[in-house]
Amino acid sequence: MLLSIVLPAYNEEQNIPNTAKVLAGLLEENSIDYELVFISDGSRDATFEQIQRAAGENPRIRGAEFSRNFGKEAAIFAGLGLAAGDAVVVMDCDLQHPPEVVPEMWKLWRSGAEVVEGIKESRGKESLAHKLSAGLFYRIMSKLIKMDMNASSDFKLLDRKVVDVLLSLPERNTFFRALSFWAGFRREYVSYEVRERQFGESKWSALSLMKYAVTNATSFSTLPLQLVTVMGAVSILFSIVLFIQTFVKYLSGTAVEGFTTVILLILVIGGFLMLSLGIIGHYIARIYEEVKGRPKYIISRMAGDVGRKKDKECETRMEVDAE
Length: 323
Ligand code: UDP
Ligand code: MG
What we know:
8-stranded mixed sheet, elongated
């Protein structure tokens, strides 16, 4: 029984050696047969060189480098594609997801769980702005996709069956955390405390979090589109009331002073229209991206035992190389 650990890494040169050592030590101690799959997400520092070095020292470590930064979602999916394990754990490579939880997840998996969710007990140290925006994001997301997202994280163990289901999904805009809920299967939970980051800094800015929120909300829910209908209905009701009022005024001969109403109406309706078009435009952009059918990521280099398992997207690239 092989356990794969997928570790997305973006500019984490300081974390790689330590994380590799800690995980290898821990898994050997628990006599779990393992492999570590590091995915460098187009890092601009020596992350990939560190992965190569770690792979040279330990044959159970493999890795890949993206041709540019494709985002954590893409890195997770690339890792799932490369992982050969019967069970796969996805965790951050900054050790904010405590490694001691991994053997616990492994035990639950051995006793029959197909998905083991890591549940955040506390969110760890974060700036107030981050805490507030993350809180808002999860509240909105939980409403939209009808599952409690606040405590969930990308730290989870998936059975091979679940990994194969996720890999078979054709969509480009993925949201790993929600997709693994959506897939179903027998789940168990393990709670953990988010650690503080030892080296480097968080890659999320307020803007990137906002983009993440909008992308994920629209790739997982069509509720915003229905909102457009609701707004339309509200403005129709509003206009009926005004229509009657205007008509009554016209009949009673006091119809001149309607200027404010006209301006307000133009503003309100114009605002609604533009907002609605924006929402629809966003979904069309989503459809456009999906229809183009571009790969989620491009692998430029591999480290370690490459022959072990190649994923589809990487294979096609290698064939092109050979020609
Ligand atoms: N990460 C990534 N690509 C990105 C941003 C982040 O692969 O574009 C990785 C990062 O290296 C880390 C994990 O995702 O392993 C979580 O990122 P980070 O620690 O910056 O987020 P936080 O823990 O602050 O939420
Ligand atoms: Mg982190």
